[in-house]
Amino acid sequence: MNEPDPPLFGREPLRHTMFMLDRQNADDRLDAFYPQGSTQWDGLRHVRAREVGYFGGRREDFESAEGPLGMEHFAAHGVVGRGVLLDLAGYRERVDDPLDPFAPEAIEPDALVEVAGAQGVEIQPGDILLIRTGWIDAYRRLPLADRLELADNLRVTGLAGSDRVARYLWDNRISAVALDNPTAEVAPGSAAIGSLHRRLIPMLGIVVGELLDLERLAELCGADDRWEFLFVGVPMNLPGGIGSPANAVAIR
């Protein structure tokens, strides 16, 4: 919960205070806690499309925490289903074309199809699709000065913001897509191509996750060449919440 360090998008650092209630009992408190500050789900209140408003054409006014698009509705059933990992970073290493997580490179559907084919995995309706770019691993190896610079000039290899990517996810009936980078889509993006967030969240209602640590999962999947698992994510039950920690595990 204290990564990335320093925080991105101008957020304050998480403050965790531990204290004694009395001689026998301890407690702790979080301050400057941003539910979307680390591993996260983007809720349906996170992004608005100019033409239609929020998902379902709703015009949220945010005067009340109550509403049909809050994270409490995600929490009621969780983000649970067949998970599939596409290890894009690992595949690119194997074909001697290493992926630079900070390039920034826009990932189009053809690349995902290629990785799925190489792994021998079939995308099925309802899948929770995880895509590893190696961003978190590369970020952790950066010295502090480089992390500070990256916080001011964010560079992310991620999904292209294109209509093609949105159609690929929709046509494959993906229920959720999550990456190991802070934006899911390439950053900086292109105004001429558009925003994948706006295509997926308010227009299609597809769940988007970011900054999932996929390093250990990729290692395990690669060891036995088995890339599917039960994915369980339980968002925070925050009425009206715009986002939530992912609270996710893969059971394999």
Written description of the protein model:
- By secondary structure, the protein is α/β, with parallel strands linked by helices.
- It has 8 helices and 12 strands.
- Strand 8, helix 7 and strand 9 (207-210) form a beta-alpha-beta unit.
- Helix 6 crosses helix 7.
- The chain is globular.
- The model has no long low-confidence stretch (mean pLDDT 96).
List keywords for this structure.
single chain, 252 residues, alpha/beta, 8-stranded mixed sheet, two-stranded antiparallel ribbon, 12 strands, 27% helix, globular
How would you sum up this structure in a few lines?
With 252 residues, this protein is an alpha/beta fold. 27% of the residues lie in helices and 21% in strands. The strands form three sheets. Strands 11-3-9-8-6-4-10-12 form an eight-stranded mixed beta sheet, sandwiched between helices. A two-stranded antiparallel ribbon has the order 1-2. Strands 5-7 form a two-stranded parallel ribbon.
Contiguous uncertain segments of 5+ residues: none
Instruction: Report the sheet-strand fraction.
Output: 15-25%
| Strands ordered across the widest β-sheet | 11-3-9-8-6-4-10-12
Q: How many angstroms separate the termini?
A: 24 Å
The percent range for helix content is: 25-40%
Shape: globular
Main β sheet profile: 8 strands, mixed
Number of DSSP E strands: 12
**What's the alpha carbon Rg, rounded to whole Å?**
18 Å
Number of helices: 8
Order of helices and strands: EEEHEHEHEHHEHEHEHEEE
Name the average pLDDT.
96
The computed structural class is: alpha/beta
